[in-house]
Design brief:
The protein is mostly helical. The protein folds into 2 domains: about 160 residues, no CATH class; about 90 residues, no CATH class. The chain is built from 9 helices and 2 strands, in the order ααααββααααα. It has a two-stranded antiparallel ribbon. β1 and β2 form a beta hairpin.
Amino acid sequence: MSEYYPGTSIIHRLDPRTKFLIFICLMLIAVFIMNPLILLGIDIAILLLYVVAGIPLHRVKGMILGVIPVIIMFVILNIFVIPVKNPTIIGYIGSYPIAWESIRAGLSGGLRFAIFVFFSRLLTMTTSIGELVSALTKLKMPAEAAVAIGIGFSSVSILIEQINTIKEAQMSRGAPVESRNPITKAKALISVIVPSIYLTILRGLSIAKVLESRAFTYNPSKRTFRKIVKFTKLDYIVIAISIGATLILIIITKFYHITY
């Protein structure tokens, strides 16, 4: 049901709460740092973690190819936002000036988005849904909310596969889903979106029936877990390194004014 990839790597052995903390540290870095080179380095470092975790390269490749158009979109949109202070004009689109600062801001935005996607996918690929729910419960999150988030994570891969299946089915019926005309393509996508929403609702109802049949609604806060997550020495080391590296990186970039 999920995109979890079993393994025994260091990434797999980390407590889910440790991975949450790393995610928060990465988001802080993305907020305080906008230098595209530093952000690109972080993206590459996260991708190397996929190799450490033993994730198949074809899954990583597909994810990268999916992010590249988003980064390009960020750059294109930012081209039309000229900085107020001393823009560096590097060319023109017709009579419209292109500023280097706008391109750099677009790259930074796209690479920030890539950090979010890459690490969130790494988290779901190396953490089982049971461990995720157990960790959220240990963080004092209501059991109902923890299970809902766990189901949400597990449904992502199903939704992607479902959309691809519906898309292929509609294309076999002659729907111009791959049309180059944006208007025609938008109309054709309705035949993909509507069935996807309908099937998602049906799946949600089925999950609700399963939870009810297993008496989940009876005192969910007292439910036990088959596998108990707990911190190990490895977790404490990774937490210390993550917090220290985040603080050092933010301080250095601010002190030497290399935010951009």
